[in-house]
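My current task is to audit a protein record that another person submitted. What it holds is a sequence and that sequence's fold in token form. Thanks in advance; the entry in question is below.
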Amino acid sequence: MKKDLHPNLVTCTVSCACGNSFETKSEQDAMRIDICNECHPFFTGSERMVDTAGRIEKFNARYAKK
């Protein structure tokens, strides 16, 4: 086997802008991120659904061939 093939992994502390922090393995010892699973709208349940069906119908009505 080749020596020094794999990177040197250390325990990394990841801190989010919302204040959440957790540990993982990485080549770096610290990371700062903007959004995490504690503040992302998809994971918190605060995401909004867009009514695309109404928009499509409006588009078809506007540009329908006469």
Observations:
- Helices lie at 41-44, 52-62.
- The CA atoms of residues 5 and 23 lie 24 Å apart.
- Strands lie at 10-16, 21-26, 30-33.
- The radius of gyration is 23 Å.
